Amino acid sequence: MHIADSHDLIRVHGARVNNLQDVSVEIPKRRLTVFTGVSGSGKSSLVFGTIASESQRMINETYSAFLQGFMPTLARPDVDVLDGLTTAIIVDQERMGADPRSTVGTATDANAMLRILFSKLGQPHIGSPQAFSFNVASISGAGAVTMERGGTKVKERREFSITGGMCPRCEGRGNVSDFDLTQLYDDSKSLREGALTIPGYTMDGWYGRIYMGSGFLDPDKPIRKYTKKELHDLLHKEATRVKVEGVNVTYEGLVPRIQKSMLSKDREGMQPHIRAFVDRAITFATCPECDGTRLSEGARSSKIAGINIADACRMQISDLAEWVSGLDEPSVKPLLGKLRHTLDSFVEIGLGYLSLDRPAGTLSGGEAQRTKMIRHLGSSLTDVTYVFDEPTIGLHPHDIQRMNDLLLRLRDKGNTVLVVEHKPETIAIADHVVDLGPGAGTDGGTVCFEGDVTGLRTSDTVTGKHFDDRASLKSEFRQASGALEIRGATANNLREVDVDVPLGVLCAVTGVAGSGKSSLIHGSIPAGEGVVSIDQSGIRGSRRSNPATYTGLLDPIRKAFAKANGVKPALFSANSEGACPTCNGAGVVYTDLGIMETVATTCEECEGKRFNASVLEYRFGGRDISEVLDMSVAQAEEFFGDGDARTPAAHKILERMDQVGLGYLRLGQPLTTLSGGERQRLKLATHMGDKGGVYVLDEPTTGLHLADVEQLLGLLDRLVDSGKSVIVIEHHQAVMAHADWIIDLGPGAGHDGGQVIFEGTPADLVASGKTLTAQHLADYVRA
C-alpha cells in the first residue's frame, strides 16, 4: 500500500471541549458516521466544536494575515491530538438571517442568476442585472468634476445615473408601515409635560432633550396647538445637525427615527417592550405600488415569454424549474444550465413547494438547513468532510428516505459524512456509529459505544436500549371538551380550510413538509389571549446569558438575597452593580490579538465568580450568590424548596425546568454552551409558566433523543390532565401514536397540499391507510 493511502482515519485524542471528558475516537474517512446520544451528551461539542472547528481554523490560517483580519477568529479547540482532518463543509441548523430584505432567492444565488437572465433576454431591455434588484435604488445626478490635465486644473460637467429595481414607495420591502400617531404622543400635553409615549423617549433622557432643545418646537405648547410646520418638524423632518446643550447632534422627525431604530430590526429580535410598542403603534400593509413584489414598475415591465421577474419569484419553485427548462436560448446556455441545476436541487431535496420571494426568516430550522445543502448537491468536490446537524429536522417520515439517499450519495462520491442525529431511520444507514453519554451535561461527555449499527442495537447504552422502541397506539382516547373553529383559512397554500381543533385533549397536526401545518395553526390561532405559542425560533443569548437569566429565575433569587441582607437587588446581578470591576461580570478577561484567536483568561480578581468580593459576603440559606449559580437545577430545586432558603417563586421555575429534563444544567452556565435540544426545552420550560389554556407547540421533539421523547410525552400528558389543551405540530411517530386526535394535511406540499385529508384518532388513521402519514404510522406501530 502506498503510504499516501494509509491516512484513512480522523483521529481525535483527549478532546475536552465543553463537557467532553478526554474523549478519544477514530473515525473512518469516506464513510457515513452518525453520532448519537441523549440531548446534551456532547455530540455537537465533538463534531462541531472540535473536528469541524479545527478544520475551519486551519483552512483560515492558509490565507494572508490581511484576509484573516476580515474572517471570524476561531480558537483552537481544547484537544491533545487531531490527525487526518480534511476540509470541512458545515451544514448546521442555524436559522437564516431574518433580515427583512433576505429571501430564499437572495440566500441561494437563484435571484442573482434570474436577474442576469432578465437583463439579457427580457423585453423591453431596461438595463443591467441591478435594474432587477429590489435592493438597488434608482438614482441620478450631475455636477462639476475638477481634474488635473497637463499640469492645469480642468473643470468638466459629468452626469451619472443608476437604474435599480427597488420600488420607491416601500424601498424594496414589499410592505409599507402606517403609524398610529395617538400611540406616539399625547396631544393634550406639551413636550416638557412628557407628551412622547415612545419607549425610551423620556424628557430627561437624551432623545427628549434633543426634541426640547432643537429650536424647531415650543417645549411648553400642547402638541394639538402646533402649526402645520411644527407638526411636520416633530414627525417628518429629515436629519438636520443642531446644537443642544453645547453638543452637536442630529435632529430627526419621530417617524424616520423610529423606522431606522426599530423597524429596521427583525420583530423577533426586539426587546419585549419595544415589540409591544411596534405591534400597538404600527400597522403593516402590502405596498399598493408594487403589490408586495418589492420591484419598481420598470423591473416588472420587462418580460420573457410573458413572465416578468416578479412572477418568476412568486411561482412555486417546482413550477419555475419547469418554466426555465422550457427556455432554449444558446446565447445564455451556461447560465440556464446552472439555474436549472439550482432549481432542480430544491425539488430533489424536498423544497420544491417554496417560492424564491419567501422571506428567509420565515423558514423553519429544517428548511433553512436543507436550503444551505443546495449549493453542495452535484458539487464535484471529493475527499471533503460534510458535517450535518440533524438533517431530518422538520421532515415527515416520507421525506427522511430522500434525505438518507442524499447523504449516501455524498459519501459514495468519496466524501466523509459526519451526522449528528436522533432518528433511528438515519442511524440505521450509518457505516460507523459513535454513541456519547451516558447522560447529559456533566453526566455525559464520554464515548459509550463505537462500531456498526448491529453492535449498537445489542449494546447496553441508552441509545441501544431505545433504538427499537415503538410507542403503541392508545386504546382509550380523551374526549374533547370543546373545539376551536377555523373557517376559510387561506394563509400561504391553504385552500379555504374549515376544521375544528378539539380542546382539552392532545391534538397532533401532521403532514409532509410544506403541506400547510404551520400556516393553519400559527395563522389561525395567533398567540395572545389564552394561547401560549412555542414556535421553532431559536433562543437568543450571549455568553453573558444563562438559564437563570433567560427563564427569569434570577429575579426572585436576587430579591430573596436583597431582603435577607437588607441591600439592593441590583448588587446580585453580574450585569449590574454587583459585577466584578476587573472583568465587568464576565468571569474571564478577553485579550484581543487581532488575527490570532482571542485569549480568555480567568479573572484574577474574582477567580471566575463574576461578582464583586463585597457582594460575596452576603449570604442566603448559608450560600453566596456565586455558589447558588453554580448549583444544578435539581440541587437548586431542593435548596429553594424548603428550609431557610424557601423561595416559592424560584422553586416553581426550577420545578418546570426539571419537568422538561434539564435537572442537570447549572444555573449560571452560559447559554452559548447549550445544545439545540437543551435550548428548545429551556424555551418550553419558560413558556409553561405563561397564563393560557391552549398550548401550541411546533415540533417539540426537535433535538431530542429517543429516551427524551418518552419524558416529553409524559409532560404533554400532565399538561392535558391539568386541564390545558395541547396542539402539537409534529412529524415524530411516537407523538402521533400518543395523540388523542390527529389532523392530517396534504396530500402533497405547496400547491399540492393545503387541504385537510384526515381528522380522527390515530387508530382510525392507521386503519384507513390512505395518506402518507397513515402508511408510515402503520409501519411504525407494527414494526
UniProtKB/TrEMBL annotation:
Key word Secreted present: no
Residue stretches making up the ABC transporter domain: 4-463, 456-772
Predominant location category: cytoplasm
An example Gene Ontology CC term for this record: cytoplasm
Single GO BP term: DNA repair
GO molecular function: ATP binding; ATP hydrolysis activity; DNA binding; nuclease activity
Keyword Acyltransferase among record annotations: no
Pfam families for this protein: ABC_tran (PF00005)
InterPro entries: ABC_transporter-like_ATP-bd, P-loop_NTPase
Subcellular location field: Cytoplasm
Keywords, sorted A to Z: ATP-binding, Cytoplasm, DNA damage, DNA excision, DNA repair, DNA-binding, Excision nuclease, Nucleotide-binding, Repeat
Family that this chain belongs to: Belongs to the ABC transporter superfamily. UvrA family.
Protein name: UvrABC system protein A
